[in-house]
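Hi support team,

I submitted a single chain yesterday and got back a structure, but I'm not sure I'm reading the token output correctly. Could someone confirm the output below corresponds to the sequence I sent? I've pasted both exactly as they appear in my results page.

Thanks,
R.
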Amino acid sequence: MRVMFAASEAMPLVKTGGLADVVGALPKALAKRGVDVTVVLPKYGEIPQAIADAAVTLTVMEVQLGWRRQYCGVQEVTLDGVRFLLIDNEFYFKRGYLYGYGDEAERFAFFSFAVIEMLGKLDRMPDILHCHDWQTGLIPFLLRTRYANRPGYRDIRTVFTIHNLQYQGVFSRELLQDLLATGDDSFTGDSLEFYGAASCMKAGLRFADKLSTVSNTYSYEIQTEEYGEKLDGVIRQRSHDLWGILNGIDTDVYDPMNDPNLAVPYRNSPAKKSMNKLALQQELGLPIDASVPMFGVVSRLTGQKGFDLIGAALPEMMKENIQLVVLGSGEPDIEQMLRDALHKHKEKIALWFGFNEGLARRVYAASDMILMPSRFEPCGLSQLIALRYRTVPIVRETGGLRDTVESYNEYTGTGNGFTFGPATVHDLLFTVRRALSYYGKEEHWNRIVANGAKKDYGWESSARLYYKLYRELVS
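Hi R., thanks for writing in. Yes, this is the structure output for that exact sequence:
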């Protein structure tokens, strides 16, 4: 079986979030099941130079984009046994950042056309084209419309995975009509039209053969008005084609015993884990004290992640004997809120704005608890990484957080973390204090950590479900 992933980012080439982790790790797990997997993504300027230099040009072509004809190179490089194809166009992709430009519609419409045109130049067509998030949502639409009658394309089946429904690639109807060179019939309620505009996410939802999203709970949540981001009606219509498959993590990459970023490698040794806390306290200028409970946050700083709850809860949290380490970047008002808190509590808070993969690993290793009060969370990777690093998650019961974190029950001895339901400051504070009450009870705390270590959150079980989904399509 031949499967091609189309995505806007993938480890170890480029990363802004969890999408890159998924697209980097899942193909390796599928390959172990005998699936021939190729990953195609833009050749960004941010790709490490050594990887870019190793890429070999397979073909050069021109891509028609509305009235434009644009150069496109297709380059190949193999990393960790996975074949990557890079779509090369420096005007669109050799920039300072991956996203956030005024011509996002044109950039990813070009990428979509380039992926489809490239297929005709390969030795063999894929059986499955697996598209990820709005940046590739136009691909299923184009395959079923513009390219439907081109020889070799009719038999390609498509899967479209929703990683975060909030980001939809919504642009003006006139802009997409120009880029796609398509008529009014493509901008109806049954096609790309979205409240007077046009949605790339909706294109994937409407035209892919199968849909998936990244946790079972999220697959039900997005069929409701509360979480459906105005697409819940479309998703309910496709519910029989929707699979909720929990993400995993690459347990070879996230391994505290073999992580070169840590001060002290460890597996199940609280003493060695504590040494990583002492090292991070020294690195970040916090008081050095292994007995102080450390809360870590590794996250995009957005409203989705519940930072309004954290901000409102901080005055009370700071009355406790704790330390808080936050790593991330995002909305300016959230960053300012955290700066204000740091100014008041320099002995208890450390901030790092931006992303630093090595530091993120050290935060997971050093922290006693990871804080994730998300208002919604399609899957969440931080809680999975935290469990791998023997760090206890405190989460709100939503999406993948609900599927992976079970609240501790002292009477049954079950549970790998602490959870709360209503998105209120009261419930967050109650849960934080409940976790702190057990932190000082060694028998209970060790049991919680041990419970978290029992379950394997690698990709094997998820890859098995994706394999089943692919088999269902090609049969």
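A quick pointer for reading it: The CA atoms of residues 114 and 388 lie 38 Å apart. Let us know if anything else looks off.

Best,
Support desk
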